[in-house]
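G., before I forget:
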Amino acid sequence: MKFGVVVLPGSNCDQDCFYVIKDVLKKPVRYIWHKDTDVDGLNCVILPGGFSYGDYLRTGAIARFSPVMKSIAGFARKGGTVIGICNGFQILLEAGLLPGVMLRNKGLHFLCKYVYIKTENNQTRFTNFYNTGQILRIPVAHNEGNYYIDAAGLKELRDNNQIVFRYCSATGEISDQFNPNGALDNIAGIINKKGNVLGMMPHPERSSERELGSPDGYFVFKSIVEWLENR
Amino acid sequence: MLKAEIYITLKRTVSDPQGLTIKHALESLGYKDLTDVRIGKLVIIKLNFKDKKRAEKEINEMCKKLLANPIIEDYHFKIKEQ
Amino acid sequence: MIKQEVYRSLGLSDKEYRNILKILKHKPTNTELAMFSVEWSEHCGYTRSRKWLRLLPKTGKYKTLIGEDSGGIILDGLAIIFKMESHNHPSQVEPKQGAATGVGGIIRDIFTAGARPIALLDSLRFGPLSQAYNKYLFTGVIDGIQFYGNCVGVPTVGGEIYFDKSYTGNCLVNAMCIGIAKKGKLVRARAFGKENSIMYVGSSTGRDGIGGCSILASHEFKEGEEKRPTVQIGDPFTEKCLIEATLEAINTGYVVGIKDMGAAGLTCCTSEMASAGNSGMDIELQAVPRREENMQPWELMMSESQERMLICVKKGKEDQIKKIFLKWDLNASIIGKVTNDELVTIRDNGKIVAQIKAHSLTQPPIYDMPYKKPRYLRELNKLKLNKILKPKDYNKVLLKLLAAPSITNKTWVYEQYDHMVGTNTVILPGSDAAVLRLKGTNKAIAATTDCNSRYCFLNPYRGAQIAVAEAARNLVCSGAHPAAVTDCLNFGNPEKPESFWQFKNCVEGIADACKFFNIAVVSGNVSFYNESPQSVINPTPTIGMIGIINDVNKACSQNFKQEGDVIILLGYCRDELGASEYLKEIYNLMKGNAPQLDLRLEQAVQRTALEAIEKGLVNSAHDCSEGGLAVALAECCISNKDNMIGAIIDNLNYDMRADALLFGESQSRIILSCSKDCVEKIRKIALEFKAPFCVIGKIGGRVLRILKAKEELIYLPLEKLFDEWNGSLKRKIEG
């Protein structure tokens, strides 16, 4: 089993993701340079957070044209496991690998803090270590995390159980008060219909060690490993 | 009723990193014949009076006071009847 | 002959000009004149401050590394490199980009040393938020820091924000960056080795920030041409690519030396790298990548375009280095080579436009500035406590202090900064110091910035000593051994003897305190002329200090943790209120003297706290600073929103004014909390170090109560404390 972490110019969580896979999960991992198109031999591709191309023009807009994105689209079509975190999620939306768009946070500021999210669907390769309804304490750090999709799209997400994580309170209450960025329906993470591509705004790699304040994000990666090893 | 369209751009002599990055991106998509890309802002303000002179004066003031920073930005505007 | 008005407007005196003629033995070209004018300025040459800066100790208990543009310490096999720098004037006119480019500049000073930047801190000072322009500056500076720091991927983990009317017209933006490197991978900012190549990397050169030198344009520009802006647009995206490319390049071992093109750009880089390497340099300007047309040689030499660096590369290895930068879509061109004639030779199309001995540029005349104690201090230092009415309701005072802009919760600010990227931040912003783990080791570093400029105004020497003592105390509270200092010295016009007296006394205060604690000053920056028609800033010698935590698991934070825990006060309260936040907020008075400071007492208190923390006896530690004991206790109760706990303080046996006891800012005090069975162990440690020790109360309930003998001075529910402390900044900004 091997993980790949994409390095776009401006990625800044690439090394953090790499560290978690290599030093915390102790699994093989390599970087994928954005000008390369080789994703052979990889079982899971991580699109990390950051500011690819400075987030200039529109977040994810330039990154989606990177040569590596074509390969990732092909990889995903064949059922390969792809996880986009924060900026990675934004790129997956721009590239059309996940539905919807990201708007600017409702507070109009970059927001970095711990939030709580509720696991809405544990029947995925990204969440099989969680219980449905389990509440995770996990950091967000973004300027554009205000997820939006039209009514028909939202219905489809719900009907297909594609909403994986939603922002909530420490006790699991879901309301505007506990929505850090204004995301529609408190959506923090979604998967595609096929279930092999996850996008999430919160950072599991920043909450994979107790030392850093919360180990709750670790099980996203652990779930992937589990699924890859036992499928 | 008047409508003012205000364009705010970085001064010609100020480097525009965002514009440069977009220029590179467009070039890599095959659009090679670009000499420059500059990014700016468009502000649209609707006024509930008809006096063009007054509009010009006030919009000018708004630009100077708040909308643009003359240290790094230029602005120009058009005022149209609606 | 060059006209007097030209060299004078470049900031050169008649004497300096005659000196230049003597050195060159011919009339300077425009380029030469421009080069001298910047290198001999205070900004680059430290001509006025250098004499006093020599007092600062360069060695301490940790082995130091002093580079050209940054410094640091050695910890096992690691080098920890750090520096703080000001970007005050640009931020005052264009707060967002001014602050952003300040952050960019300090990061470059760190990674050009070969260290990966792992943390940023910012010490910020503004005039009162009641004035619209100050509010614009404040929000603009925050926006600039988040814009640059978040994108470039270096976490902003701490710092401080103060408001005082002396900063109206002169905001201060001091940015500090910390980086780490393997010991053997460091590079210096110097060029040597005949025939080695000089390579230019990064963004193209435009007419950015030519600023003062634009007077030369009067010769060459036509009337009515646009005045050059002195502020530039920061490009954190390019900088992020530069970090990765530079570290990769240094890793090859082919980089001889490297330097950021900061102030005075190419001039500074060529002359200082050559001088530091005792060599010369031959540069061809036609090879410099540029983004504007018809740039004159002196413009290219003066330009302060951002995100550029100069590298000295081993001969024959140019292509390997170039390849790395091109991979990151960055410019990389060879613009010259190292010579051994110790001359900086600048050519334009082969023709020499400047040729100057490198050392003569980097060894400017040093001035002995006159200084004089300001007369007003005698009056200001007098404070008759009995003339100050005692408040009727201490609860009201405490709530007001918690809402004071300099004390109130800064969550609204640091939530806009990515303070976690890099996954090293163990203690997040909002405690006494930020703590970053060092991956691959069991250790961590703690970092803080400190300076109470009101103390420094009323007593520069003692105020500066307190800044050092408080920074060390903050680190100790997080469980760290104070290790080394970077200083950012912000003052008014050095040509005014009163201002220079403040400077001299502050430097002496820092030097003496650092020597006492055996801490080196490894890097720093001086910013003079922080005055405007409205005001002169309080002397502000900002101290950035880092400390070493030997066991990351013992890192300590300020908030009370456990119901039933015992509260201990190390140190003692004096009957003093001078220079306090209390006098300022409640009586609008900036009077009296800075609090007393006994360095031996300070050390005893710090050693006790540190040993207790390292032995795992302590559950929380917080120092007493602005707002005194009452504010510190309130912060212990409420600073962890998810786990607020009350306390009762019922053993304060002091015979003094209640307001001085609650809000006085006596130094050398630390509040510890611990479980009952640790109390005696801590008392023993205190006895051993001769630190005053007193159990003052215990943790529990939903109320903070403070009693003096039998009299209840403070009784406030946690929610009330939290609301005042938490909401006031946001209310002031967002209305």
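The longest strand of chain A covers residues 111-119. Chain A has a mean pLDDT of 96.

More on Monday.
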